[in-house]
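Example 9 (inverse folding). The structure is encoded as follows.
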């Protein structure tokens, strides 16, 4: 895939997710943004380890965080975290179940689709290991939201 197409996909991915924010509501954005941002920062650090260990590879050059992982983090990951918290916060089982479903959809069909489009492919991680790599952060997200929620009471 050309770099131009990669950037179009990245921009579309970010725009489509961010266009859903008005439907989330100002109150929910204010409530869930701090924990979601912190998870995105943690993911930004995790990405550096994953890139060094070649867990995945983006096809296009430059192989930078900005053209590779960053759009996924500030688009679907950030906004998706806020939506999942809105729908399920207060019900831990529902939160974990919804995260597992969303992460499984991303890990299995979507990652395979992105590989066919020649965007990214897993190298030293199987799809199952990649699932756990992204899923463990759900527990952190819920815990952080709990702490931020307690602080605001």
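The amino acid assigned to each position is listed next.
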């Amino acid at each position: 895939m050309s770099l131009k197409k990669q950037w179009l996909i990245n921009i579309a991915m970010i725009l489509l997710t961010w266009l859903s924010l008005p439907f989330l509501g100002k109150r929910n954005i204010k409530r869930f943004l701090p924990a979601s941002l912190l998870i995105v920062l943690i993911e930004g650090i995790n990405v550096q380890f994953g890139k060094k260990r070649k867990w995945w590879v983006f096809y296009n050059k430059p192989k930078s965080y900005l053209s590779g992982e960053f759009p996924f983090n500030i688009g679907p990951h950030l906004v998706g975290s806020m939506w999942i918290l809105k729908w399920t916060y207060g019900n831990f089982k529902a939160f974990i179940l919804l995260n597992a479903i969303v992460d499984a959809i991303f890990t299995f069909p979507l990652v395979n689709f992105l590989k066919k489009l020649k965007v990214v492919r897993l190298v030293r991680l199987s799809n199952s290991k990649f699932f756990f790599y992204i899923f463990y952060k759900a527990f952190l997200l819920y815990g952080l939201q709990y702490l931020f929620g307690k602080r605001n009471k």
